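task queued by scheduler; priority normal; single chain, no ligands, no partner chains; default sampling; output format set to structure tokens
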Amino acid sequence: MKLTSPAFEDGELIPTKYTCDGDRFLSPPLYIEDAPEDTKSFVLIADDPDVPAEVLPDKLFTHWVLFNIPADTEGIPEGTHPGHLGMNTRGDAQYTGPCPPPEYDPAEHRYFFKLFALDTMLDLPPGSSREHIEDALDGHVLERVELIGRYQRI
């Protein structure tokens, strides 16, 4: 299975357009290829593991959670959210773009877009927390891939 974006290559910079220095709530386009044959749905979690402990003690900021993405989805167009939105760290059911605080190190953060192919649809309501979604994934992941982008505020 592959997860790619026409906006940035794996390990490269995320365009400003998709960050707090552009349109904070505009998600980048993503493409899904070669999903397992038995896929019933997808889950997408985008997070930043480089948050300073002074900002968040667990050092992880969740930017975007999508679940129950239909199995026939081949792409997630810019600014869309197929399936259901889960809660991000801000407590919002939406995409929130990269926005590393410039006064802390590291200045450049990594953003992991993790895609899970599942053998089921999750029996959870829209707005569910990342934790509930991750618990529901247990035993249902057929395959997992990730796309990493980087961003540093200017």
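post-processing summary
- The first strand starts at residue 2 and ends at 4.
- Helices lie at 130-137.
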